[in-house]
């Protein structure tokens, strides 16, 4: 299982490694520098042959210390290296100071902000950002922003850009770019980010993937420390998805509530996803006016007429209906009427879209009715309607780090709602009320930009409902569905429409050996 370590957790892992006597700070710094050099040579093998030129920007902390190691290692490979330091060398922390002195025996230490422009420019080269890493606590102000801007200007267009641990300006915990007062937020835009021991939440959340470029995490010999509160990075479905045989009733019966005439498509998409992911039976609950429309569109799916809360209560007397999904295309009025009844029935329940927006005026009424087997699947806007205070924390400029993150927001929301919350986005965060949390990022090797298409969210809700019907717990169902949703999108690729997602599941499941 991969975990994402916050800046504080990373410091604790480093201290534990050093306190055990297994490794010293200087050794960790040396391995970090070696890791960056190895990653950059692997990424651009040609730079070893053709350019062999680097500018290294060092900051006042240990991130800067890594920069001195990198400069020395590249120099040893016969690269031309120009190094610049922000701050006073006499105030560097001990390990960084040691590496400053080792570098200083080989080359010059220029001052930042530049008193004279770098000698190296034009052609090709590599600029190494070792200004700030996990220790960044405030935005890059008038002193640092122009240093970064220089490498976005003419002369450096063909240079590769490598960030050490994190692009400077990016908050390790939240993936938000820190602001400096009223100045525009400045950040180093990397082609490659090389981090150490474990990825950080900021590599996957918010602006992280956009500014990190490619991400490499290198081993620096720290033992895997376990942090109960660390977020997991989702890289697999986490559930056995194969069917163990048996009757269709052994695999659950999902009930998807549909909206009225002309608005049934979303529920049909959700229902098809629930069926494809293996629910034994799936029934659409439809108001009378939409019955013809739905009947004309379904085959393996079933349909029941549900006009009122009483009709839903009556239907749910059948205990075989073990998972319910409300929201996709449901309509606000119908959601207000049906959601309380569905929650009273105590089934595993997914609430999405209109089923969430219906409670915008009174989220407390929803929270009181929810139970532990529920999953809420808000996107940012729906999240803001139910948890306006948490959404406000996430919005607007981030003035100091470590910043409030989507992990913090989803975790607080799950605790408040008393159920699983899946906060949707390219950086989906899933949190359980006990604080368990994971991040599913459609980023780097798993980017799926085609998922930003109408109806994709309805399919996600249906996948969760199908997995709930099959007996998965709320958190596990949401986690697996987020993974499968992106796998299905990646299986189709460009041109994807939501209808394709359920149809891609057989290939996805086959690929997973299910
Ligand atoms: N934790 C670990 O296990 C390891 C950490 N290493 C490196 O050490 C880094 C963390 O080092 P530090 O904790 O010293 O932190 P940083 O080097 O990221 O920065 C801390 C320094 O920057 C100053 N600062 C913060 N924000 C500023 C701003 N906006 N403008 C000006 N100055 C600012 C702080 O006052 C402090 O002096 C990691 O990112 C990584 O690169 C590596 O050497 C390997 C091992
Ligand atoms: K950096």
UniProtKB/TrEMBL annotation:
Belongs to the NnrE/AIBP family. Homotetramer. NCBIfam families: yjeF_cterm, yjeF_nterm. Its EC number is 4.2.1.136, 5.1.99.6. Keywords: ATP-binding, Isomerase, Lyase, Metal-binding, Multifunctional enzyme, NAD, NADP, Nucleotide-binding, Potassium. Residues 10-228 form the YjeF N-terminal domain. This is Bifunctional NAD(P)H-hydrate repair enzyme. It comes from Salipiger mangrovisoli. InterPro entries: Carbohydrate_kinase_pred_CS, CARKD, Nnr, Ribokinase-like, YjeF_N_dom, YjeF_N_dom_sf. Bifunctional enzyme that catalyzes the epimerization of the S- and R-forms of NAD(P)HX and the dehydration of the S-form of NAD(P)HX at the expense of ADP, which is converted to AMP. This allows the repair of both epimers of NAD(P)HX, a damaged form of NAD(P)H that is a result of enzymatic or heat-dependent hydration. It catalyses: (6S)-NADPHX + ADP = AMP + phosphate + NADPH + H(+); (6R)-NADPHX = (6S)-NADPHX; (6S)-NADHX + ADP = AMP + phosphate + NADH + H(+); (6R)-NADHX = (6S)-NADHX. AMP binds at residues 424-428, 457. Residues 231-512 form the YjeF C-terminal domain. K(+) binds at residues 63, 129, 168. Binds 1 potassium ion per subunit. (6S)-NADPHX binds at residues 62-66, 133-139, 165, 266, 329, 379, 458. Its cofactor is K(+); Mg(2+). HAMAP family: NADHX_dehydratase, NADHX_epimerase.
């Amino acid at each position: 299982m991969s975990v994402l370590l916050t800046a504080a957790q990373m410091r604790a892992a480093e201290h534990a490694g050093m306190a055990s006597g297994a490794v010293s700070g200087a050794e960790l710094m040396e391995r970090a520098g070696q890791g960056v050099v190895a990653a950059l040579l692997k990424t651009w093998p040609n730079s070893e042959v053709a350019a062999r030129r680097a500018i290294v920007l060092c900051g006042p902390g240990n991130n800067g210390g890594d920069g001195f190691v990198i400069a020395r290692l590249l120099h040893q490979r016969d690269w031309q290296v120009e190094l610049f330091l922000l701050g006073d060398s006499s105030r560097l922390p001990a390990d960084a100071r040691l590496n400053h002195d080792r570098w200083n025996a080989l080359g010059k230490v220029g001052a930042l902000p530049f008193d004279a422009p770098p000698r190296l420019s034009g052609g090709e080269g590599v600029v190494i950002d070792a200004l700030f890493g996990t220790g960044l606590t405030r935005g890059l102000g008038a002193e640092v922003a122009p240093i970064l801007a220089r490498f976005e200007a003419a002369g450096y267009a063909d240079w590769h850009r490598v960030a050490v641990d994190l692009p400077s300006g990016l908050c390790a915990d939240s993936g938000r770019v820190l602001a400096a007062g009223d100045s525009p937020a400045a950040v180093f835009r990397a082609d490659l980010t090389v981090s150490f021991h474990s990825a950080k939440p900021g590599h996957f959340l918010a602006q992280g993937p956009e500014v990190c470029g490619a991400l490499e995490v290198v081993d620096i010999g720290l033992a895997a420390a376990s942090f109960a509160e660390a977020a997991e990075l989702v890289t697999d479905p986490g559930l056995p998805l194969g069917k163990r045989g048996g009757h269709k009733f052994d695999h659950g019966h999902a009930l998807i509530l549909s909206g009225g005439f002309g608005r049934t498509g979303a529920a049909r998409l959700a229902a098809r996803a629930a069926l494809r992911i293996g629910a034994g039976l799936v029934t659409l609950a439809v108001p009378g006016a939409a019955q013809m429309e739905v009947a004309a569109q379904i085959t393996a799916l079933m349909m029941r007429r549900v006009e009122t809360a009483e009709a839903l209560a009556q239907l749910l007397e059948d205990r075989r209906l073990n998972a319910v999904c409300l929201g996709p295309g449901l309509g606000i009025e119908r959601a207000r009427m049906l959601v309380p009844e569905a929650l009273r029935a105590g089934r595993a329940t997914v609430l999405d879209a209109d089923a969430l927006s219906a409670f915008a005026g009174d989220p407390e009424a929803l929270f009181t009715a929810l139970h532990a087997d529920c999953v809420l699947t808000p996107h940012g806007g729906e999240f803001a309607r139910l948890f306006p205070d948490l959404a406000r924390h996430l919005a607007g400029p981030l003035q100091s780090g470590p910043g409030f993150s989507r992990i913090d927001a989803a975790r607080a929301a799950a605790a408040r709602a008393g159920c699983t919350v899946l906060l949707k986005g390219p950086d989906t965060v899933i949190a359980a009320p006990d604080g368990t949390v994971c991040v599913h990022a459609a980023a780097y090797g798993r980017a799926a930009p085609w998922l930003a298409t109408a109806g994709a969210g309805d399919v996600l809700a249906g996948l969760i409902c199908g997995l709930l019907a099959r007996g998965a717990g709320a958190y596990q169902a949401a986690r697996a569905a987020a993974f499968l949703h992106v796998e299905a999108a990646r299986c189709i690729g460009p041109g994807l429409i939501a209808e394709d997602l359920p149809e891609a599941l057989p290939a996805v499941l086959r690929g997973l050996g299910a």
